[in-house]
Amino acid sequence: MSAIATSPTGAAAGAQARRPGLGRLTHVELRKMTDTRAGLWLLLATAGLTLAVVVVVCLAGDDQDRVFANLVSAAIQPASLLLPVAGILLVTSEWTQRTSLITFALVPERGRVLTAKLIAGCLLGVAATLLCVAVAGVATAIAAPGLDDTWSFSLGLLAQDLFYVVTAMITGIGMGALLLVSAPAIVLLYVLPTAWAAIGTLSFMEKPAEWLDTTRALDPMTDELLSAGQWARALVALALWMGVPLAAGWWRVRRTELR
Hints:
Elements: H1 10-17, H2 22-35, H3 37-60, H4 68-96, H5 100-106, H6 110-143, H7 155-179, H8 182-199, H9 206-212, H10 214-218, H11 228-255
Helix pairs in contact: 2-3, 2-6, 3-4, 3-6, 4-6, 4-7, 4-8, 6-7, 7-8, 7-11
């Protein structure tokens, strides 16, 4: 007896040929963040708040506050706080707006959709950070503090700023994938770290908080080049607050029944 080799033909071959690439899926996910009124207004609010923060610092701060590095540090704070909400909505909208059946019918491999969402979130984080750097640059030129370190800003600090915003965005995506419902995910995104920061003020929690409190571990990232020890604490905190929700959310999205 001989085995007969078969290959996809007809409709099956056509379906395989029409399989959307990762680039196209990423483009679709980027559009999802602006196609809804909630997403669009969230991005506009982030941009407006960034501009407002920079203006306030320029008007109320002293000369040292108006140097380029400090303005960049101030400018990216609204993005790091609000963009994770866009990440949450990017995932939860599939279930709250009941589009998951359509999305995963067109792309049955849910891991590819989640990967596209992560790439889209990272691209948005990079774009937001670069926009903040541009706004800070214009503000520095207008304020002209005239100090020796006015334009002092290393590529290492820029890389840390990008890392800071992008990881915040990924944290939001992970929290949205974990809960699949917008409101609880947004509440937990802000309440859990705040509650942990409060617990970390207790004397017996002082040392663990240095490694597990994202505020303590990540905030220096926008102000100075981190040492090896600071990077270790930052990565441990991210493993808890970003890695665990993302891994659990990835598993849940792949297993949750569509509706």
